[in-house]
């Protein structure tokens, strides 16, 4: 055979291969129209594909007898701090993302989780203190409609996206416990519950209203499936809300520690400077306890 024949054969094969690759690209494009990794692409990347089957980070629960030391601490997460922006944005749900409060609100609305009344002196997560969703909406003067379900004819509550009031929740209380496990010789922190705090104008003055307590463990299956953006520089870096809290990638400050009188720091300090000193004292207590464990 002549050299020209082999040249034609090679060119024809290359053209066929190229067209096949482009056809495959069109059918299974890596990125979809929104710029995300397409669900059609098989991938084990943590930022790819649907999040419905993702599980929360597994935490090992210690035995009660193995807790050598523990301390309950209450913190405030201020969403106006840059590190906490991923919990506040987007203000309206978009691109499979929603704010932390919007997620909580919708889960309560759909009956998937239970929340409990905020009490000034204690937290009780029992049926007696469950917050009724409709009563909560009325108490907070939310806009909503009651419609009949087209299939079951049951009454359902409809709240428009713009009426969720995500922008009015600027802070959260966090209840957590720090403990030392003598079996594993580890010093750990475990979040117990969150309390969204709404800011509303009353008689020309902005006032804060703690809304309810929601246990962290009931949230975790849904937090694991909710991705967030943590930076504008890399849209591929999309951890879940569960990652953020378990790995403690948020900013907060202490407002209370467990004590005999059940008082918060403001109640027994007369100035903001004294409060800051007390906060530093509690923080130092936690750090020193861990450091002292390894002194010889």
Can you lay out the helices and strands and say which pair or pack?
Elements: H1 3-27, E1 67-78, H2 85-88, H3 100-109, E2 116-117, H4 133-139, E3 145-148, E4 155-158, E5 169-181, E6 186-202, E7 205-210, E8 212-215, H5 216-223, H6 241-246, E9 253-257, H7 272-293
Antiparallel strand pairs: 1-5, 1-9, 2-8, 3-4, 5-6, 6-7, 6-8
Helix content bin: 25-40%
| DSSP strand content | 15-25%
Q: Overall 3D geometry?
A: globular
| Poorly predicted tracts of residues | 13-27, 42-49
Report the structural category. Answer: alpha+beta
Q: Secondary-structure element sequence?
A: HEHHEHEEEEEEHHEH
Report the sheet with the most strands, covering strand number, pairing sense and barrel closure.
Answer: 7 strands, antiparallel
Residue-averaged pLDDT: 80
Report on this structure.
By secondary structure, the chain is of the alpha+beta class. It has a domain at 63-112 and 160-293. The chain is 28% helix and 23% strand. It is built from seven helices and nine strands, in the order H-E-H-H-E-H-E-E-E-E-E-E-H-H-E-H. The chain has helices at residues 3-27, 85-88, 100-109, 133-139, 216-223, 241-246, 272-293, and strands at residues 67-78, 116-117, 145-148, 155-158, 169-181, 186-202, 205-210, 212-215, 253-257. Strands 1, 2, 5, 6, 7, 8 and 9 form a seven-stranded antiparallel β-sheet that branches. The protein has a two-stranded antiparallel sheet with strand order 3-4. A hairpin with a 6-residue loop joins strand 3 and strand 4 (155-158). The radius of gyration is 26 Å and the shape is globular. The model is unreliable at 13-27 and 42-49 (pLDDT under 50).
């Amino acid at each position: 055979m002549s050299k020209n024949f082999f040249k034609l054969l090679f060119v024809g094969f290359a053209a066929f291969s190229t067209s096949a690759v482009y056809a495959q690209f069109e059918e299974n494009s890596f990125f979809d129209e929104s710029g995300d990794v397409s669900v059609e692409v098989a991938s084990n990347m943590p930022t790819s594909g649907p999040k419905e089957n993702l599980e929360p980070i597994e935490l090992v629960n210690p035995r009660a007898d193995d807790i050598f030391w523990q301390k309950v601490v209450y913190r405030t997460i201020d969403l106006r701090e840059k590190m906490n922006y991923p919990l506040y944005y987007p203000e309206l749900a978009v691109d499979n993302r929603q704010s932390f409060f919007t997620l909580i609100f919708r889960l309560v609305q759909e009956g998937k989780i239970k929340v409990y009344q905020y009490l000034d002196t204690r937290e009780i997560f029992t049926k007696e203190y469950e917050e009724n969703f409709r009563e909560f909406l009325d108490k907070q003067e939310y806009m909503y409609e009651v419609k009949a379900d087209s299939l079951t004819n049951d009454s359902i509550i409809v709240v428009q996206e713009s009426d969720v009031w995500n922008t009015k929740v600027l802070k959260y209380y966090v209840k957590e416990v720090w403990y030392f496990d003598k079996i594993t010789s580890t010093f750990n922190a475990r979040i117990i519950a969150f309390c969204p705090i709404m800011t509303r104008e009353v008689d020309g003055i902005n006032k804060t209203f703690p809304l309810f307590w929601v246990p962290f463990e009931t949230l975790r299956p849904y937090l694991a499936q909710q991705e967030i953006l943590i930076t504008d520089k890399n849209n591929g870096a999309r951890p879940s809300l569960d990652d953020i809290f378990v790995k403690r990638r948020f900013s907060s400050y202490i407002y209370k520690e467990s004590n005999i009188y059940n008082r918060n720091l403001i109640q027994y300090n007369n100035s903001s400077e004294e409060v800051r000193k007390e906060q530093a004292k509690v923080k130092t207590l936690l750090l020193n306890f861990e450091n002292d464990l390894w002194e010889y």
